[in-house]
Amino acid sequence: MIASQPTNKTTILLLISDHIMLSVTQEVLQSIGYLVLPTDNLGTAVDRLTESTPDLLIVRTYIANMPGHEAAKYLRSRCPGMRVLILGGILDDDRLEYPEALAGFEIFPKPYSAAQLLEKVKEVLATPK
């Protein structure tokens, strides 16, 4: 069984260029009541920020030939209070090579289950802005 329902209408901006992963992740998050704004590119993500102020950005390590942390940095500059969770295969080498670029972002490496993802999302959302 997947984790319990969130207590409020938390909004999550989901930026994943792989359409299957985008769809599956959206379904998992919506299954417990999160309001999910799915997008597969940075331009659409920027447009979403004009419509809403998400509580959390979930982004893959790389999106459409762009590092996910660069997209996250740009989006957070437009929405400073938004928390960021980077999903995927960030290796220790990346953390050593890009410590400043990755500072302030939560990183959740693969593999993970739907239940583990939901627990990580709750954990990130519970941290102060």
**Number of continuous helical runs:** 6
The assigned structural class equals alpha/beta
pLDDT averaged over residues: 85
The largest sheet, given as strand count, sense and whether it forms a barrel, is: 5 strands, parallel
CATH superfamily: Response regulator
CATH topology description:
Rossmann fold
Strand content: 15-25%
Work out the oligomeric state of the chains in this entry.
Answer: single chain
pLDDT < 50 stretches = none
Distance between the termini: 30 Å
- What is the N-to-C succession of helices and strands? EHEHEEEHEHHEH
Task: Write down the overall geometry.
Answer: globular
User: How do the strands of the widest beta sheet line up side by side?
Assistant: 2-1-3-6-7
Q: What Rg, in angstroms, do the CA atoms define?
A: 14 Å
CATH architecture: 3-Layer(aba) Sandwich
Overall tally of structural domains = 1
Q: Report the strand count.
A: 7
Query: Which percent bin holds the helix content?
Result: 40-55%
Please, could you describe this protein's structure?
The structure is a single chain. With 129 residues, this protein is an alpha/beta fold. The chain is built from 6 helices and 7 strands. It has one domain: Response regulator (Rossmann fold). The strands form 2 sheets. Strands 2-1-3-6-7 form a 5-stranded parallel β-sheet, with helices on both faces. Strands 4-5 form a two-stranded antiparallel ribbon. It is 43% helix and 22% strand. The protein is globular, with a radius of gyration of 14 Å. It has helices spanning 19-30, 42-51, 68-78, 92-97, 99-102, 114-126, and strands spanning 11-15, 35-39, 56-60, 62-63, 66-67, 83-88, 106-109. Strand 4 and strand 5 form a beta hairpin.
